[in-house]
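Why do we bother with holo predictions? Because pocket geometry can differ from the apo form. Keep that in mind while you read this record for alpha-D-glucopyranose.
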Amino acid sequence: MTERSASAPDISPKDPNWWRQAVIYQIYPRSFADADGDGLGDIRGITHRLTHLSTLGVDALWLSPFYPSELADGGYDVADPRDVDPRLGTLDDFDAMVAEAHRLGLKVLVDIVPNHTSDQHVWFQEALRSGPGSAARDRYVFRDGRGAHGELPPSDWQSVFGGSAWRQVPDGQWYLHLFAPEQPDLDWDNEEVRADFRTTLRFWSDRGVDGFRIDVAHGLAKDLTEPLRDLGDDLQGEEALVTMADGSHPFYDRDEVHEIYRDWRKVLDAYTPPRMAVAEAWVPNHRRVLYARADELGQAFNFEYLKTGWSARELREVITVSLDTARAAGASATWVLSNHDVVRHASRLVLPEGTDPDAWLLSGGRAPAIDAARGLRRARAATLLMLALPGSSYVYQGEELGLPEVADLPPEVLQDPIWEQTGHVRKGRDGCRVPLPWTRTGPSYGFGPGAAWLPQPESFASYSVEAQEEAEGSTLELYRTALRLRRKLLGDESLTWADSAPGVLQFVRSGGWSCITNLSREPVPLPPGELLLTSTPLENGHLGPDTTAWLGTTPQRPGT
Ligand code: GLC
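The structure, written out:
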């Protein structure tokens, strides 16, 4: 990648480093805005609502998959990576959306899903028809089963969504699917697979896309030497990545995966400015930053930050490690609090420590009951803290409205494959994917002219953009003010911790402005400095619990 400076960002559209400290807004297209009234959000809906993003003050938007899909996994089962799902629009609609985004000064990122395709993809259909040993099967991971008649799966590998990661086809062979059975894994040792993804990266880059989010970036390279290695009970799932964070896991985070991204970087650097990329890799910090190296993707989502509880000590530690590891890799740090896969942070941050989010969702959000007002207060404090950190912040649609998780969706409306695949043990991720409320009234609160694909609770009326535009001190107003201020304040990527009382975090950014968060249970005095913004109004001149303030350098004036 071209030279990276850690100095103040250049905001010209041609700056190759525009992403280093950008704020990127994630759109989950099916839940953002529905222009044609079929209940599913679409591309024209996004175009109509782009001014929401420019008014908000973000730098870029990232679209989760909008490609043709059977929706077995909310679009992450891609049937054709170089087209638009007809229910969501056309390529012309997409081009119009990109043009409008660029006119408004917004960059556009799209999702690349390289670990698997949909079972409806022409390649997989061909593989099914062509039979064992065919070139078509070589693009995927087909194997004979174990047992006298091949009746057992080829290994004990478990799907992330539950159950065996292997499914048998009528001629007796098995294919690997680390996610849903409708998402067969590709074999990245196959040169045709590699070439096809280079084509996809060029296809969207040629259409003006500025960057890519890489789905399951740590999953592509696999050790498929025979006999396949069983994992046993202890090493299944995400936990294994903590235990085996050394590149030795048979299908996650293997060292060979980096070769793929070095190849992609050459493709992305052929554009002006070079296309940026960010890895989705649920691996520990020191392994994650490898994906963000300058000759690879450039950035990787910081899920360790997302997983950190509301604790000053833990946050300080994770922020320090994240900045150090990013710097060592030549990358900028990233921060994320919510996305389409996790419980929204306005709810998550008040789940008592040790609560299993799946069990909480299964109880319909009742056990334990959570304090929604406190959750919102914390979410606002967490946002100001995140937006003050050096590096990029990724915000998820609806968090600017303070939306909580919709934990009580009834089982009959659930769409996430996790619900069925776990035999109704885990409800899945639909609760953070409920379509956005834009207006106080209407069949889907302005999401579209009719009902939305997932039911919205009545409380969404008061969370709507319309309601919040009229309410002083709303969460929407906080995001708008914070993002405007951030642009003015942003300097280089340095951060200096200031001494602070237990339960309080304070750091200073270049130029001398600072951020202080009170995570303790008592109000704390505000240090000197001009008060620029608070997540919750001060209490008798003190910073209340669960509150963040941004301070300028000038001494505090009386009465501010
Ligand atoms: C990623 C996506 C998630 C999807 C999975 C399989 O983790 O964020 O939504 O289910 O990959 O593609």
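The mean pLDDT is 95.
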